[in-house]
Specification:
single chain, 8 helices, five-stranded mixed beta sheet, Metallo-beta-lactamase, Chain A, alpha/beta
């Protein structure tokens, strides 16, 4: 090979390596063996392909547990590549913390022999019911290449509590009642005392109610008793002041429930509640205008069925 051709080849190799590095999924090791990618506070769209949630993985001496797979098939592949760059031990578990698209659309990248998908006892049904709508919406709005093959239900379900042995560390999974959704899981790593809460905890991004407002408050109070050194939310930065880090979310959800209940007792309509309930919280949260009215609507419907 001539010197000129060799030089061109070297330049192309460097450029390819730089491009690969630039496109690599950024993860941070927040504690020994626990890696987290922090998503952006954005609405899912064709620009971000729905890749907006916190995802990551936990490494044991025997194998790896992936915690959520991302908002697109491509992000799932990037996460798989990140695992392979980090450790030689294989993936043995993929845990889907709930049914929402930004947490499950990368599943197919991990579907291979030896990998067990784990989810809430209600996750398979929720996936089946929502898949047609999610698929149509993804094809119309996200441009992320989603197909029906990307909806992979759990092989193993969490009824109440389940322990996963990764070798030298245990992950303790808890299935929660209706809260953020009706398919929520939390995870606790007993080695580092880190609590992975997924969308049971929002930091900065306004909480989104797709399950039960009262149920979420109930589950949150239980979780606040967990002795954790740090907590990983579904959206926003990892927090070290648990359970105080949940105070803002608890305040927002509590105030929303109180105000909506009051409006229902006053005989107000849903339209009136949408304009009045908890509007003063607007400056406290990102994406408030995009999700708050949805939360009011959910809380209002729930309050209408409560005992007087």
């Amino acid at each position: 090979m001539s010197r000129s051709l060799a030089g061109v080849a070297m330049v192309l190799a460097v450029a390819a390596a730089s491009l690969q590095e630039a496109s690599a999924l950024e993860l941070k090791e927040i504690a020994a063996g626990i890696f987290v990618h922090q998503g952006l506070h954005e609405l899912p769209d064709a620009h971000n392909h729905g890749e907006i949630a916190n995802i990551g993985f936990v490494v044991g001496s025997r194998c790896v547990a992936v915690i959520d797979t991302g908002g697109s098939p491509e992000q799932g592949r990037e996460l798989k590549a990140a695992v392979e760059r980090t450790t030689r031990v294989p993936v043995c578990y993929v845990v889907n913390t709930h049914v929402h698209p930004d947490h499950i659309y990368g599943n197919r990248a991990f579907r291979q022999p030896g990998v067990t998908f784990v989810g809430h006892r209600k996750l398979a049904q929720a996936m089946a019911v929502r898949a047609p709508f999610y698929l149509e919406k993804a094809q119309r709005e996200l441009n992320n290449g989603l197909t029906r093959d990307d909806f992979i239900p759990p092989d193993q379900t969490v009824q109440d509590r389940l322990e996963l042995d990764l070798g030298g560390r245990r992950l303790i999974l808890t299935a929660h009642g209706p809260a953020h959704t009706d398919t929520d899981l939390s995870l606790f790593d007993d080695q580092t005392q880190i609590l992975w809460l997924a969308d049971l905890l929002f930091e900065g991004h306004v909480p989104v109610v797709d399950g039960s407002l009262s149920g979420w408050l109930k589950e949150l109070e239980k979780l606040r008793s967990v002795q954790a050194k740090r907590a990983i939310p579904g959206h926003g930065p990892v927090v070290s002041d648990w359970p105080a880090a949940a105070d803002a979310e608890l305040h927002y959800l509590t105030r929303l429930r109180e105000e909506v209940r009051g409006l229902v007792k006053q005989g107000k309509t849903l339209e009136q509640a949408l304009e009045q309930a908890s509007r003063s919280s607007r400056g406290d949260w990102q994406l408030f205008d995009e999700f708050h009215k949805r939360n009011v609507s959910s809380g209002f419907a729930e309050a209408e069925w409560e005992e007087p």
